[in-house]
Specification:
Number of helices: 8
Oligomer: single chain
Strand content: 15-25%
Strand order of the largest sheet: 1-3-2-4-5-8-9
């Protein structure tokens, strides 16, 4: 099914070969790699090996996404992880929104992950949970491009498949139930004002993970897509600092 849709310009996966330390970078629900590319490029510039996979059904057409499951999205991220494993000794994972959810999933499953950086990650969205049961409705309005900076636009779908919402809810439930399995160092970024994922999600994550080393940083000048917003430099700077600190131990 997926083959009939071309990848949108700017939504391609990205790979940067660097040193033996890898960073897996995941975009979010209905979004594309465009939202994470500036981070990927900055981490590559710092010398790291970076992989930014395109989640299956994303960066093409929302009807393509409708055909995919949350297991497909997990596979997309795990393929990126395997790509890094072949090249690196140490791996960090970061992601935005559902990419943050997938980041947590990876830390729950793979104990070898050295550290994670979830950004406005989602583990419970009650409003969305209600939406998945809408009868006869196939697509909802877009949820992308929640950005404070008026000059920036996110490359995301103009419609959201109701079926995909159900898949996201399943993924969040799975991840939320296993937060206690996250033991690696964790740096959580949360936007003070977010119109897609309530900031309370990040507090819930912070409280429920079992990591000894964990920090919550509030972003005051960004909405949901903080990776493309005013606080992008802070995310990059603090992430590089976090990685450096862990590697120096």
């Amino acid at each position: 099914m997926s083959n009939q849709y071309a990848i949108l310009e700017g939504a391609e996966p990205f790979y940067f070969e660097g040193n033996k330390i890898g960073i897996l970078v995941s975009h979010g629900f209905t979004g594309s790699t465009q939202s994470m590319r500036p981070l990927g490029e900055a981490y590559a510039k710092a010398g790291y090996t970076v992989c930014g996979p395109r989640l299956k059904g994303h960066g093409t057409h929302y009807e393509d996404m409708e055909q995919t499951t949350h297991e497909d999205w997990i596979v997309s991220v795990e393929e990126g992880y395997q790509w890094l494993k072949e090249r690196c000794d140490i791996i960090f994972v970061t992601g935005l929104s559902m990419g943050g959810t997938l980041t947590l999933y990876m830390a729950e499953k793979y104990e070898s992950i050295k550290g994670i950086i979830p950004i406005n990650a989602a583990v419970e969205l009650p409003d969305l949970a209600a939406v998945q049961n809408l009868d006869g409705v196939r697509f909802l309005d877009a949820i992308g491009s929640d950005i404070k900076n008026p000059e920036i636009k996110e490359l995301a779908y103009e419609k959201t498949p109701v079926k995909s919402v159900g898949e996201l809810v399943q993924l969040m439930e799975k991840v939320k139930g296993n937060l206690h399995k996250v033991t690696c160092p964790t740096l959580i970024f949360v936007s003070e004002e977010d119109h897609v994922v309530p900031p309370s999600n990040s507090n819930l994550i912070y409280e429920n993970i079992a990591s000894d080393q964990k920090q919550l940083i509030t972003l005051n000048e960004s909405y949901h897509v903080a990776t493309l917003d005013h606080d992008q430099p802070i995310i990059i700077e603090k992430t590089l600092q976090f990685i450096k600190e862990i590697l120096s131990k």
